[in-house]
Amino acid sequence: MTDRTTTPPSIEATSRTTDSAIAIAAIAVLIASYAVNAMDRTLFPLMLTDVRREYGFSLPQGGLLSTIFTLGMTLAGIPTGYLMSRYQRKTVIQIGILIYSVATVITVIATGFADMLFYRAITGIGEAMQLTALLAVFSSYFARSRAAGVGLLNYAYAGGAAIGPWLGAKLLVDYGTWRAPMIIYGVIGLAMMVLIAAVVRPALSETKGEENASRVSGGAASLNNRNTIVLATLSVLFGLALYGYLGMYPTFLREQLHYAPADAGKVMSIYGLGVLVSLFTGWLGDRFSPRLVLGLSFLVASAIAALLFNGPADFATQATLSLVLGATFSGTIFVNLAACHVKAVAASLAGRVSGLFVTCVYGSATVAGYLIGWIAGLSGWTIAGNIQLVALCLVGAVIALLLRPQDMSRQIKQAG
């Protein structure tokens, strides 16, 4: 006679419920951590007018300071992909947060252009490490709906981009110095790093999506394939357009349209609200051709940008257009570019291709602020916006037609 030890159904059900609750809590904490990332990167552009006034920086110098963090993101993107093959993604996320939070605080003691430029670049290294690892976590954990998974993560950007400028402007007014918001945001980041250590388990952050491997087929065996090359090109164009807007649009509002800091902060916060469409647009990206989704999105972005820099200057119009641009840029193009990069290759390359995406977007973003500031200084803001946003998005819409959806990974319906 053989004795068998069985677990009562009630205990198994309780265990599954507990595990689900822990997973939901961990996902929520990771989303919140990326919201802090978004808050941090949207803060400095809002402070730029005050920084320029204090240090006497030129408009192109200010533009470079505003987007130089993307140089750090460029340098860290691909190496972070390799780093995740040796260390836990959770650890990489925490180190990233530590780096950009400390660098944000240190920025307030800068003595001039050179050291401030260095500190702002260092923040990008940390932000890239966190973002690359988070993209790998969410695209793997939600392997059956990668774009929707990235869309869920992008809700964090929506929250951070909405709260960051509003809170930053409030702290600027309350304390009367741009240094106070920088220090406070850095401390918030350090607190989030500790929370991740306490809540996020490796079982969630390190999942490779093996449970879904039998349902997914296709994808290139290396990064050297047509879809990845096309997507990398689109990512470069997107970085130039996106950070031409994010890096210098607040300066355009304050110095060209003469908005008060609080009003400029409100407009940028409204841009962040547009990102709330991410989950829906990710769902669209999982069900329709990327040529259609990305092509139309770039086309819409071009039209909105044209209105933004050539249309009425009143608050209601600028806020509405920023809302729609947020839904198009960060809510649709970012989500589907990130997901398509992962879909274009085999599952084992998810970390590396996520790093490539980050490098391409933020590599071009490195010069985006300087470029639009330089063009604006020569020819005015209207021409600068028409060149760097309107024209580049039109080019992106055409290039998206070169994608081959049939070569990307896809779901297989299993019998039975």
Q: Overview of this structure, please?
A:
This protein is mainly α. The chain has one domain: Growth Hormone, Chain: A (Up-down Bundle). 78% of the residues lie in helices and 1% in strands. Strands 1-2 form a two-stranded antiparallel ribbon. The longest helix is centred in the N-terminal third of the chain and has 47 residues. About 1% of the residues have low confidence. It comes from Bradyrhizobium erythrophlei.
Question: What's the layout of helices and strands?
Answer:
Elements: H1 9-55, H2 59-67, H3 69-83, H4 89-106, H5 113-141, H6 146-175, H7 179-199, H8 202-205, E1 216-217, H9 226-256, H10 261-273, H11 278-287, H12 290-310, H13 315-343, H14 350-379, H15 381-399, E2 410-411
Antiparallel strand pairs: 1-2
Helix pairs in contact: 1-2, 1-5, 1-6, 1-7, 1-9, 2-5, 2-14, 3-5, 3-14, 4-5, 4-7, 5-6, 5-14, 6-7, 6-10, 6-11, 6-13, 9-10, 9-13, 9-14, 9-15, 10-13, 11-13, 12-13, 12-15, 13-14, 14-15
Subcellular location: Cell membrane
Pfam family, one: MFS_1
Transmembrane segments: 21-39, 59-84, 91-111, 117-138, 150-168, 180-200, 229-248, 268-285, 292-309, 321-342, 354-377, 383-403
List keywords for this structure.
416 residues; mainly alpha; Growth Hormone, Chain: A; two-stranded antiparallel sheet
Brief summary:
The protein has 416 residues and is mainly α. It has helices spanning 9-55, 59-67, 69-83, 89-106, 113-141, 146-175, 179-199, 202-205, 226-256, 261-273, 278-287, 290-310, 315-343, 350-379, 381-399, and strands at 216-217, 410-411.
